[in-house]
Design brief:
With about 675 residues, the protein is an alpha+beta fold. The strands form eight sheets. Strands 2, 3, 4, 5, 10, 18 and 19 form a seven-stranded mixed sheet that branches. Strands 12-11-23-22-21 form a five-stranded antiparallel sheet, with helices on both faces. Helix 13 (about 335-345) packs across helix 16 (about 415-420), helix 15 crosses helix 20 (about 495-505) and helix 17 crosses helix 19 (about 475-490).
Amino acid sequence: MRARLFMLQVLVLSLLAVLAVRLWQVQVVRGKEFVSAATQTRTRDVVVPAVRGQILDSRGRPLVRNRTALVVSIDRVKLSRMPDGGDAVLKRLSVVLGQPVKDLRKRIRSCGPGVSRPCWPGSPYQPIPIDNDVTTRQALQILERQEGFPGVTAEVQAVRQYPHSTAASQVLGYLQPVTQQELERRKGLASGFSGVDLMGRDGLESVYDEALRGTPGLRRVQVDRLGKALGVERQVPPVPGDTLITSIDAKVQEIVEKALANAMKKAPRADGAAGVVLDAKTGRVIALGSAPTYDPSVWTGGISDKEYSGLLSDKYGKPLVSRAIKGEFAPGSTFKVSSVSAMLHDGYPINGRYDCPGSFMVGSRPFNNFRGQGLGVLTLHMALVKSCDTIFYRAAYEQWQRDGGIKPKRRTKEPMAAMARAFGFGSRTGIDLPGESAGRIPDRAWKKQLWAVTRDDNCKRAKTGFPEVAKTDSARAAFLKQLAYENCLEGFQLRPGDAANFAIGQGDVLVTPLQLARAYAALATDGKLRSPRVAWARIRPDGTLVERIEPPVTGRLPITEAQRLYIKRALSEVPSDGTAAGAFSGFPMDKVRIGGKTGTAEVYGKQDTAWFASFAPTENPRFVVVVMVSQGGMGGSAAAPAVREIYEGIFGFAPPESKQPVEAALPDRRPAPKLPVIRPDGTVDR
């Protein structure tokens, strides 16, 4: 026992000796060194965000601009390191901002599966804005008592503002925080973000994000050992983002959106609409509308779960989706400009006479004209004016037979499909907006591809049928079962009915409103197919031109000049003597003559899709206007009146029921001829 006590005493004395030696080293030998380290300053680098560039219309009017606001942000990492998880800070902040603590916690939690909005979709290591418009008094309460609000900042920042409310919302796009995954995936991205910067997520904000965002600055701050700022050691000012000038005309855009809204009101079952106005000569976009639409300011300051769900909901018409570039619809008779071009290119005489009976037998099935009406013997000119279907059924059936019919030749010509692709259908236009759809040209190759993908399901359904449909509609269930059986065995075949429907823009043909507008622009002007552009130029804030953005020529219509002019002259009679005559009754054609084509496309289980594709003035086209109304009914009664309303607004013509003069959106009857001038101080000279 004595030996053990002795060893314990030796151990304790040894430890005390080691501690004494260490204290002597710290306090005596290296004392001055540690005192100096404790009192010296350190530096921290702070990334300073650049002011995001404006988006202007073709006349220099702002579509998107910035306003300054006091923004309160929370550093969630600092809060999480506090003993109480930041509860005390959030309670004090709740009193200042007048927001419940639970709402503040929702705003700083990370978005993810099963997490409802509001939540934070960005990196958790960035300051999280929780209020984008506090008062000066609220900001001072936070800044003057920083010891009570650790991890909370209040700074003046630029916030996006939309002067024209809902105008061109799908074109402009919106901003969202950069995510941690993006920072990790893209090396060097983190150094360019201040923690409060946002990235473009759709529209022009996304496509031209880098140019609009500008270059962030750097502030190197001296801090003491407690992290308190003592002064600025070095400062590199941020470079504001470029101003993006678009070819959009704000007044025409508002006219288009109003016309779409009116068209939907007049068609009780309409569930969507789209409108396109192009500069016929250059391919620039003057207006691009989609209805329903929404106010993009909903993204500013965080969006609620209800608001976000509404933007993607079928109930509200998916207002976040642009039907003008993403919506795919059967074009109906507006597609006949491609079909008649295919006929002429295939050798059908331009001055020939063609029988237009009320019905034409395609194989063993009759294909009818509208309401079964026969129109006698017509030229191709009058076939377009009066929109005769049976002439096109016959031509498509004859071409299908020459290709071998059900047993196609080794090399088929498929004149209708080849011409449609030459018109730009079935491929993206290449517009400078994200998410564009390609449409669909259902040729023989497409049928084989579809059959390969759907064969197993069709064969299965041919045996089991459609019991879920039979519960409510036994006749339709029987039809679907028979169709599945036929597609299982021979779904790879292009049937004669497929060819006939193709010729009048029905069946499996799908186009976007923008594709149709581009095709009509080529037909009405010089035959060149252009890739439309919304952006016109990038300008530095001091007015220096960075880049002029030109719509490139991507193709040429494979028809002769005489054939193109022949079709154009036929379309020039549609609003006065053809299927759109009722819609344009009383329109001052002596001042501005309109050319165009109606389209009424059948959709199973729904109302028809209404179209009108047009150009004006016919003698020297400057504008192409296309309107589509989903479930709108007939093109001549739903879409054509909306196009007329757009032209009345552009040219300043009062509608028949109004006695008040109308101010023309474009008094000189042409798109903006030159870029607006930005002065060195950043203001616009219009």
